Amino acid sequence: MSMSEEQIIELLRECTLFMGMNNLEISRVLSGHLGRIKSYSRNVLIAQAGDEVRFLHILLQGTVKGEMVDYTGKVIKIEDITPTRPLAPAFLFGKQNRFPVNITSGENVILLSIPRDRFLVILQESEKVLVNFINIVSSRGQFLSNKIKFLSFTTIKGKLAQYLLDLSAQTASLSFTLPHSQSQLSELFGVARPSIGRAIGELNQDGIIGTEGKRVEILDQAGLTSYLK
Question: In what order do the strands lie in the sheet with 45-47?
Fold first, then answer.
């Protein structure tokens, strides 16, 4: 699928990299540095863990997922990425500038790929893009730190407790709707789907949480927190 420059600029207005910028400002910044458009069909490996990050990839359409595969072949989903986020921005520069995870298309995908040297010129020419990029990289570092903490829990209930408590903090409420299905949670946690259902059922029976469909209410916050120890 082809896109005009006007369509690309309009989509990039939603990208955090160009936050606070209008169409004309984005167009001026990208003048001569627009890069190339790449399309991928569903379930295609876009980048493999260990590949050098030579482009700033921005997801314009579709979804992609970042996954790690351990030595036993077990796949652990790190996150789902939606438009219009950059892919692996924290790994564009540095000595170990390689993709930390496999990047696979979840739906038909369109990427804008800007070569690293061209993006470096953009950073030098635009203070707004520079500040936005620093904020993005800082946020990614915080996300990865939280992800490591999450994966350190060895029990399913520990992972589930951290997941639910994080959602509660994000929504500032003890009652919220799960953004993931049990199948998606099983990928996220790296465990079998029946184990997720069983853990949720046991937390229900123990009066720790109450569920109705994808709606969850934390009934005993201290009890849920105890699984983190």
Answer: 45-47, 102-105, 64-69, 75-81
